[in-house]
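ingest -> validate -> predict -> emit
validate: passed (alphabet ok, no gaps, 179 aa)
predict: started
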Amino acid sequence: MKKAISLVIFFQLFFICLLAQNSSMPPIDKNNYPVLKIQDKITEPVVARVIYSRPQKTNRPIFGGLVKYGELWRLGANEATEIEFYKNVKIGGKKISKGRYTLYAIANEDSWTMILNSDTDTWGSFKYDVKKDVIRTTIPVQKTDASLESLAMSFEKTTLGFNLVIAWDYIKASLPISF
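emit:
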């Protein structure tokens, strides 16, 4: 009986250790446009939502290092970043139908190629299929004065719609989205 109890305790500790290791995975974040207000006081219907993992810099060189210039990047960690539109929008002058898409980028020093792809629920960029690209558009990047430790995405209102703002380390890029 003592051996059985000891064995159960051993396996419980083993699984607790496994769970503790998984907690080092980057946190998942979600943002909406417009930002949801508390107490159901939304003044505008939700138009877009982005879901992504937030990797940490942790003293690593990010752009040109971890994120290689000229190579496909899933815009985060773990699962590929997904963006969902709840109504038709325009990106790069092209009509994008409402629905869910995977969002990728090809980072370069002065610009990023943003890619909207119809293949969703994918891990990383391992099964990326260029034939499923909906649009590719190039956006400029800006250098910032302060470094961000974690990748961050947010939406900001513009006169023609909104921007998806992506920032990490000393870099910030904005993807214009219009109605």
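The beta strands are 28-33, 48-53, 72-73, 81-85, 89-91, 94-96, 99-107, 111-117, 133-157, 161-178.
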